[in-house]
Amino acid sequence: MMDSRHQKGESKLGCMLWVLVFGVAALIAFKMIPVKIQTSQLHDFMIEQARHGTARIDNDRLRKAIVRRAKELDLPLELDNVKVEMQRKRVRMEAKYVVPVEFPGYTYYWEFNHTVDETKFLTD
């Protein structure tokens, strides 16, 4: 058996490295998880609108509704970056935008391209 009294300070450097790694991972998660949640909520909104909200709405109003929801979620989506095509039985939507995620000394530009292609439910 090894006597722990002869291992003077050997684990301190390893412990500090693990604390540093954990701290960096926590910072990344702290910055990225809220953005992912917000973008997922916008995508879910687009799917919901494609499935149920398009029966009596035109393309322009639907584009504005998507941008309005993005603004509520603090996402930098502009009207020019939203495309909506409605046919009799299908709805196709696309939203492209970039979310800057700022870290100390670095900004990561996270690109999103949400595409929804759904059969719409006709209530006419």
Itemize the secondary structure elements and their pairings.
Layout: H1 10-52, H2 59-72, E1 82-86, E2 90-103, E3 106-119
Antiparallel strand pairs: 1-2, 2-3
Question: Helical amount among residues, as a percent range?
Answer: 40-55%
Topology order in helix (H) and strand (E) letters: HHEEE
Quote the distance from N terminus to C terminus.
82 Å
**Strand segment tally:** 3
Low-confidence stretches: none
Tally of domains:
1
Structural class: alpha+beta
Radius of gyration: 23 Å
Largest sheet: 3 strands, antiparallel
List the strand order in the largest sheet. 1-2-3
Quick one: overall form? elongated
Rounded mean pLDDT is: 86
Enumerate how many helices there are, as a single number. Answer: 2
Q: Strand-residue fraction?
A: 25-35%
Architecture overview:
This protein is of the alpha+beta class. It has one domain. Helix content is about 45%, strand content about 25%. It has two helices and three strands. The protein has helices at about 10-50, 60-70, and strands at about 80-85, 90-105, 105-120. A three-stranded antiparallel sheet has the order 1-2-3, with helices on one face. Strand 2 and strand 3 form a beta hairpin. Helix 1 packs antiparallel against helix 2. The radius of gyration is 23 Å and the shape is elongated.
Search tags:
three-stranded antiparallel beta sheet, 27% strand, single chain, elongated, 124 residues, alpha+beta
Quick recap:
By secondary structure, this protein is α+β, with helices and mostly antiparallel strands. The chain has helices spanning 10-52, 59-72, and strands at residues 82-86, 90-103, 106-119. It has one domain (15-119).
